[in-house]
């Protein structure tokens, strides 16, 4: 009995979920710290303009992440289903296909971003003051995207094989290098955004090498061989289909960040909040995005840990066990979200303060953070919905759900609230834009609830049939 099979079948559901979730949550926290550390160090060194420059690059960093999860999450779902069906050769071929796809996609992204760096950054809202800081950061991140894709995407193959602790080690290595080199390059050597990007690239490069070493270890339940690196078109299509919902989340997050920066720059240019500058409004948007993503880590971590367990049970045709894992994922994820969420709502000044903003920009950033954080507890429903349908191999439903989730969120946040709310209430367009996060999240959660309610009854019928 391999480690994944033992966790899925040989332990109680809460025990298996906690065992898988703890290192995943810890690893995701490290990844988020690695992402946030650039903004913190640059903010301390350059103040508001530095945070704004990193914020402007966020949509493009999310594009890299979307490539990583496209092949990483998609491949891990196929691997989990293959191991559940006792087909390790298919699992190995899937892993090889994912690695090859990651290499091609990363090179294409790096080339396109390098050629179009300045037009893309200006389109995203970069002013002449911000552009010299944003350009080198984006170009270095783009050319290190292969390392990022392997470290954050392909590493999920190791977790799916039953070794979440190894993935935690990969992520810990990356963040440690990033923090040490980031402090050296940005603070000591005054390297600014260039130094921050170099530190991030170095951390991801080492993590990518460790990931490759783990994939080749003898205790893996599937054995990678040279021929597995030749992509299988059938497995690639299956990988992309199952990875698309996770990738689409990052893609729409990238679009939302991009649209947010454009609208914030437009609205802030004519209507500033108190003493906030245009750079301050952009920095507030970046801080809100980074901190809310940090708050969602416990819920995402629990759902991520449950994916291979749900996938294995589905592959083994065990509907009752599948339902138990889904229920406990929702309960544990919701409980895990609450402590950090409460801290942000009570003392937002602490979280904003670490980014080194100018004192006139802090009050608006605190207001923005409090408003957006209100959506965190209910987000567990949306997180579970996306993860469950992917893990269970229901690619069409997962893709439909993600389209409806993100479509309703984008429409509500960017079309309804910022343009309708000012005509109904005495509130500006800039404030209405940030309030749109609440309306968009409620719409996405309501749609997800409908899908999960329907699936619950489908599983109950399967359980009744298996027990008859």
Q: TL;DR?
A:
The chain is mainly α and 468 residues long.
Please give a structural write-up.
The chain has 468 residues and is an all-alpha fold. It has one domain (3-467). It contains 19 helices and no strands. It has helices at residues 3-9, 13-46, 48-84, 88-115, 117-123, 131-143, 145-154, 156-160, 164-188, 192-215, 233-270, 278-295, 297-315, 319-346, 348-353, 362-373, 379-391, 395-424, 429-467. It starts with a helix and ends with a helix. The model has no long low-confidence stretch (mean pLDDT 83).
Topology:
Layout: H1 3-9, H2 13-46, H3 48-84, H4 88-115, H5 117-123, H6 131-143, H7 145-154, H8 156-160, H9 164-188, H10 192-215, H11 233-270, H12 278-295, H13 297-315, H14 319-346, H15 348-353, H16 362-373, H17 379-391, H18 395-424, H19 429-467
* Quaternary structure type: single chain
User: Please, how many domains?
Assistant: 1
- What is the radius of gyration? 22 Å
* Helix percentage range: over 70%
Task: Please report which band the strand proportion falls in: under 5%, 5-15%, 15-25%, 25-35%, 35-45% or over 45%.
Answer: under 5%
Q: What's the end-to-end separation, in Å?
A: 29 Å
Structural class: mainly alpha
Protein name: Probable multidrug resistance protein NorM
Keywords: Antiport, Cell membrane, Ion transport, Membrane, Transmembrane, Transmembrane helix, Transport
Subcellular location: Cell membrane
InterPro entries: MATE_fam (IPR002528), MATE_MdtK (IPR050222), MdtK-like (IPR048279)
């Amino acid at each position: 009995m391999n480690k994944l099979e033992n966790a899925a079948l040989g332990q109680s559901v809460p025990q298996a979920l906690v065992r898988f979730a703890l290192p995943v949550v810890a690893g995701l926290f490290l990844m988020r710290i690695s992402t946030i550390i650039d903004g913190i160090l640059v903010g301390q060194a350059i103040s508001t303009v530095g945070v704004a420059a990193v914020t402007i690059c966020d949509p493009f960093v999310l594009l890299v992440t979307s490539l990583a999860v496209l092949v990483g999450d998609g491949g891990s779902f196929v691997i989990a289903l293959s191991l559940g069906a006792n087909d390790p050769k298919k699992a190995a071929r899937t892993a090889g296909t994912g690695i090859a796809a990651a290499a091609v996609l990363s090179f294409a992204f790096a080339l396109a971003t390098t050629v179009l760096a300045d037009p893309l950054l200006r389109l995203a809202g970069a002013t002449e003051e911000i552009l010299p800081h944003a350009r080198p950061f984006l170009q270095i991140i783009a050319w290190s995207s292969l390392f990022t894709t392997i470290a954050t995407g392909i590493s999920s193959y190791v977790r799916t094989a039953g070794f979440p602790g190894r993935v935690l080690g990969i992520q810990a290595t990356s963040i440690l290098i990033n923090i040490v080199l980031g402090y050296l390059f940005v603070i000591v050597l005054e390297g600014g955004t260039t130094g921050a990007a170099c530190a991030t690239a170095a951390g991801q490069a080492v993590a990518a090498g460790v990931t490759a070493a783990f994939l080749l270890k003898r205790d893996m339940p599937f054995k990678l061989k040279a021929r597995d690196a030749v992509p299988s078109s059938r497995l690639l299509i299956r990988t992309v289909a199952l990875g698309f919902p996770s990738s689409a989340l990052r893609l729409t997050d990238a679009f939302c960040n991009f649209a947010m920066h454009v609208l914030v720059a437009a609205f802030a240019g004519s209507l500033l909040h108190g003493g906030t500058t245009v750079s301050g409004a952009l920095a507030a948007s970046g801080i809100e995005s980074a901190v809310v993503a940090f708050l969602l880590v416990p819920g995402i971590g629990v759902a991520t840990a449950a994916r291979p367990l749900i996938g294995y049970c589905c592959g083994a045709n065990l509907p009752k066990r599948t339902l138990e894992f889904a229920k406990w994922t929702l309960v544990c994820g919701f409980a895990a979200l609450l402590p950090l969420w409460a801290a942000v709502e009570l003392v937002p000044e602490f979280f904003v303060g670490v980014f080194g903003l100018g004192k006139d920009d802090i009050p608006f950033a605190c207001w923005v953070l409090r408003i957006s954080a209100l959506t965190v507890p209910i987000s567990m429903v949306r997180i579970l919905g996306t993860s469950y349908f992917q893990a269970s191999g229901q690619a069409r439903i997962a893709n439909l759900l993600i389209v409806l989730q993100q479509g309703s969120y984008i429409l509500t946040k960017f079309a309804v609230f910022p343009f309708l709310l000012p005509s109904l209430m005495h509130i500006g367009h800039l404030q209405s834009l940030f309030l749109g996060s609440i309306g968009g999240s409620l719409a996405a959660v309501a749609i997800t609830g409908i899908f999960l309610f329907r699936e619950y009854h489908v599983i109950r019928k399967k359980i009744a049939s298996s027990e008859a």
